[in-house]
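Me: I hope this is not a bother. Any chance you could explain this protein sequence and its structure tokens? It all follows right here:
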Amino acid sequence: MKKKNKLNGNIGENQAYDFLIKNHFKIAETNYKTKFGEIDIIAEKGERVYFVEVKKRTSKEFGYPCEAVDKWKIQKIKKVTQVYILKNHITGKDFQFSVIEILGDKINFIENIF
């Protein structure tokens, strides 16, 4: 079951990547990892940096994909974001936390989710 979930997650990240490129985002990083966790995609558009979590499900049996981004996951993303900003000396830009949820083949880009 874990392999199936990982494969589904990889497919979702590829779909999200393609979605962002088609919508004129510049991809800065994918699967950015630190000791605190991982951010699926870091993208830029204009003067804004987007920290994007990707969630994909094949059905609503266990709820919408974005519902899997809980308080614990949000805390991890925020810590990883701080590391990324400090390590890359980013100043003068706005930051936004977003989720791309994919249900089947439908993509929903949820901006400023937290």
In short: The chain is about 35% helix and 40% strand. The domain at 2-110 is CATH 3.40.1350.10 (Trna Endonuclease; Chain: A, domain 1). The helical segments are 2-22, 71-87. The radius of gyration is 14 Å.
